[in-house]
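Dear Dr. L.,

I hope this message finds you well. Following up on our conversation about the binding site, I have prepared a predicted three-dimensional model of the protein together with guanosine-5'-triphosphate. For your records, I am including the exact sequence and ligand specification that went into the calculation, followed by the structure tokens. Please feel free to forward this to your student if that is useful.
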Amino acid sequence: MNSLLSVPASDLPKTLHKWLSGLVCGLHCFYFVLNMIFMQQMNLGAVQLLVACCSFYFFWVALKNRHYAWHRYMLMLLLTCNILASALIMGLKAGSIFWSFALPLWYYLLFGMKQGAVFTAIVAILFMVVLLVNPDAEMIRPYRTVLNFVLAYLSIWLVCHMYEIQRKKSHDILQRMALQDGLTGVQNRHALKADFNRINKQIGSTFMLLIDIDHFKRINDTFGHDVGDNVLIEVSNLIRNHVPSNNIYRLGGEEFVVLMENSHKDDAYRCAESVRALIENYSFYQKETNIDLTISIGIAPLSVGQDFTDFLRAADEKLYQAKNEGRNLVCK
Ligand SMILES: Nc1nc2c(ncn2[C@@H]2O[C@H](COP(=O)(O)OP(=O)(O)OP(=O)(O)O)[C@@H](O)[C@H]2O)c(=O)[nH]1
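The resulting structure of the complex is given below.
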């Protein structure tokens, strides 16, 4: 299923990357001035100038809405190396090691759960080594420092990991709710539109089957809305048993769509005809009554230059023809 909601989800790392690049640039300009002028730490100042320049470039590119994954990796690599180098050169007194506690959060938000966990683990080991070999090791008790660092770092890591699991779960639920029809469980109109935008628009080999239950209003009027709902669920299940569920959508009301990619028009017709016959020969048993139903189907091929509305309209015209010609028909 194509994800409509994956747009904001995949925007999060992009947005974070953009503003983090800006922040990193600003901070490193500040630290560059501090180190060069006041601390006389030329090497560190040079590293910070390099990070500031690179992050400014990433920020500037991201501002133009151009996003490259390698910019993200590069930004975090530079930032991590810079924090490590500061801790190594300046020792613990400078306090730059505190920035390491922000890294797990950034890794998880920028790279997701798997890569976030791997980067966090690697960096944890590197920082432990830095703590053990740092120039202040004689002044402090490095093992206690390492232990405290590990515990603090682990707790932040744990929070990031739990947060990412919860975020992904909520995202999946929201995505399902946004793209699924609440009554029948098949995909909805949003999903159809998103899939239309995603499909490789192979003209002449993508077909839309627009399916409409004949005289559905009578079912509602005769047996009640709840029976109408059950019939809609059963119809969708029958279609689902016949074509891959990834390709079925409920447009709304008693209209369903089957999207067929990489197909020949004869395949599309055969599929539509078999679904029509299936419903015709099926008896819907509701409220101790057998209800016989038929459906009409319009088939349209995707043509050159058609957008979603045109494609749907073309299928709708064929459906209208099937209805006009007496219903329980497939028109192509
Ligand atoms: N039970 C139920 N009925 C619905 C739902 N959505 C739409 N309907 C009903 O579906 C009916 C559609 O009726 P019409 O558009 O007149 O079409 P029809 O009776 O199927 O007639 P033709 O399409 O011309 O064969 C209306 O009575 C709507 O109230 C739903 O979710 N559940």
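In brief: The beta strands are 207-213, 248-252, 255-260, 283-286, 289-292, 295-301, 330-331.

With kind regards,
A. P.
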